[in-house]
Amino acid sequence: MSYSYEYPRAALTVDCVVFGLDDDDLKVLLIQRDLPPFEGRWALPGGFVRLDESLEESARRELREETGIENVYLEQLYTIGEIDRDPRERVVTVTYYALVKLTDHQVQAATDARNAAWFAVDDVPALAFDHAKILEMAHERLRGKVRYQPIGFELLPAKFTLRQIQHLYEVVLDRPLDKRNFRKKILSMDILVELDEVETDVAHRAARLYKFDRRKYQRLTKQGFNFEI
Amino acid sequence: MSYSYEYPRAALTVDCVVFGLDDDDLKVLLIQRDLPPFEGRWALPGGFVRLDESLEESARRELREETGIENVYLEQLYTIGEIDRDPRERVVTVTYYALVKLTDHQVQAATDARNAAWFAVDDVPALAFDHAKILEMAHERLRGKVRYQPIGFELLPAKFTLRQIQHLYEVVLDRPLDKRNFRKKILSMDILVELDEVETDVAHRAARLYKFDRRKYQRLTKQGFNFEI
DNA sequence: TTGACATAGTGTACACACAACACTATTATT
DNA sequence: AATAATAGTGTTGTGTGTACACTATGTCAA
After folding, report:
1. The CATH fold of domain B152-222
2. Cα separation of A61 and A54, whole Å?
3. Which of B14, B36, B87, B166 is paired with B146 by a 20 to 30 Å CA distance?
4. Could you give the count of Cα atoms lying within 13 Å of B112 in the half-sphere of its Cβ?
5. Is residue A161 within 8 Å of A207, Cβ to Cβ?
6. In chain A, where are the structural domains located?
7. Are A211 and A158 in contact (CB under 8 A)?
């Protein structure tokens, strides 16, 4: 079976930059290619867009198929269509970035035959195609957006300590933050709920757990509140 | 001649939201369609992506062909690929927005056969396809971006008065600004050059002209300066 | 030429937000 | 019981945003 058109058409793909956070770094999920071109190289998860799915559906399907990841924060990043970005033919790719709770997704990495692994964002191997550039753009977008939208919580478990949030911002923004000022600021926004629980399995005083109250955030937003770190 | 592929492919287009500013409003440039679907309706300038040009080149070509506009600020906005957004077949569109100096582009609108005209952004006719949504997104992006990037100057003539900049921000942000505070702020950034000229043809005291010093802005940016209104 | 009118251009005071900074409290471990 | 590790907490100075009203200058018309 083949499909014919009056004018030539570019192939259309989606590629996803999946970010996760652990105790050390910001991580990105990569897949090792098992086919040419760039066979054996690490690359962003992604694939061809089908005609019966929207772009975002396509991105979510590829994420599911290649990494087992589902139900994550996903946002369109940029569309790249340089003529020679794929050696085979003209390929235009719509890129997305995803934020996942790494604790929930540590295992599923190697769902299908392909090799998948988390890498520190600042220490990735050589990537296929122009994926290094895409990763760079995604990282920059995250750095910018995390300051005025409460998307950072997508990288944390549902219950987290104030230290974890601060660590998140320190890692993403790549600068140290003052503990007292940070806590004052994040608590004064009134978008966190203090839980009657503390963290466990730590060899020192346990910190209180909080969760992000999305309802409250949305209510405040309608009243003109602007999140900002 | 026809082109065959193993899998079906979406058609790929670009669409541009062209903003201009006059003494009253923020305007957008629209084209009246001369072919079905939506024949006779107003629409964003745009068209199919060719395989020998990048996406941005494609957007610039369509702008030139359909409106005569060249050498303008152009930035990618979003890519839309909902399955049924075009009644004929699957069409994915990469959208851009452009900022033009309306004074330079008043006449060229009707370059080719098609009818082209400027409309106040808040008073556009019914648009073809999902172009109303695209316009809405572009407007929102402009509102957001104009506050932390000096792109507003792209809407003004090379030489402008402080009142014109203030008017620009008042129109785009849709709120009144205090004259003294605005002038203090914009001048304190040290990115404007005061010229030895004043405006002409006004029936009252003439205001001093300024121009935006891009060099100075870039130098300051490298030193950690952040534009913000 | 003079007066009316239209906009240019200018400074201060108060409130609020941000930044810098160090010690005590609590829990686990030995 | 002592040690180690992190949790948790306030104040002060500095800078930034905001509110606010009058004088200066040029055009135009009588």
Report:
1. Arc Repressor Mutant, subunit A (1.10.10)
2. 10
3. B14
4. 14
5. yes
6. 11-145, 152-222
7. yes
The rounded distance, in Å, linking the Cα atoms of A9 and B98 is 26
Extended beta strands in B63-174, E state: 73-80, 91-99, 116-120
Contacts of A54 in chain B (CB under 8 A): 81-83
- What's the gap in Å between the CA of B81 and the closest CA on chain A? 6
Read off φ and ψ for residue B123, nearest 5 degrees.
-150, 60
Say how far apart CA A7 and CA A186 lie, in whole Å. 55
Q: Do A79 and B83 touch (CB under 8 A)?
A: no
Q: CB-based contact (8 Å) between A11 and chain B? A: yes
Interface of B with A in 92-111 (CB under 8 A): 92, 94
User: What tokens appear for A55 in the block?
Assistant: 């772009």
Q: Which residue is nearest to nucleotide C11 (CA to C1')?
A: B180
Would you say B14 and B93 are in contact if contact means Cβ atoms under 8 Å apart? Answer: yes
Chain A residues with CB inside 8 Å of B6's CB? 1-3
Of A7, A80, A81, the CB nearest to B48: A7
A6-15, A112-121, B16-25, B41-50: which has the minimum mean pLDDT?
Answer: A112-121
Tell me the CATH class for B11-145.
Answer: alpha beta
Give the number of A-B residue pairs with CB atoms closer than 8 Å: 90
Search chain B and give the residue with CA nearest A89: B51
Write phi, then psi, for A185 (nearest 5 degrees): -65, -50
Beta strands in A45-177 (DSSP E): 46-48, 73-80, 91-99, 116-120
- In terms of C-beta density within 10 A (0-12 exposed, 13-18 middle, 19 or more buried), how is residue B46 classed? buried
Nearest to B182 by CA among B198, B197, B194, B165: B165
Q: Is the CB of A161 under 7 A from strand D?
A: yes
Q: Answer yes or no: is pLDDT of B111 > 90.
A: no
Q: Chain B within 8 Å of A175 (Cβ-Cβ)?
A: no
CB-count burial class (<10 Å; 0-12, 13-18, 19+) for B211:
middle
CB within 8 Å: B83 and A54: yes
Instruction: Copy the structure tokens of residue B174.
Output: 């849709």
What is the ipTM score, two decimals?
0.94
B227–A contact, CB cutoff 8 A: no
pLDDT at A114 over 90: no
- The C-alpha atoms of residue B65 and residue B59 are separated, in whole angstroms, by 10
Residue A109: band (very low, low, confident or very high) from pLDDT cuts 50, 70, 90:
very low
Mean pLDDT, rounded, of chain B: 95
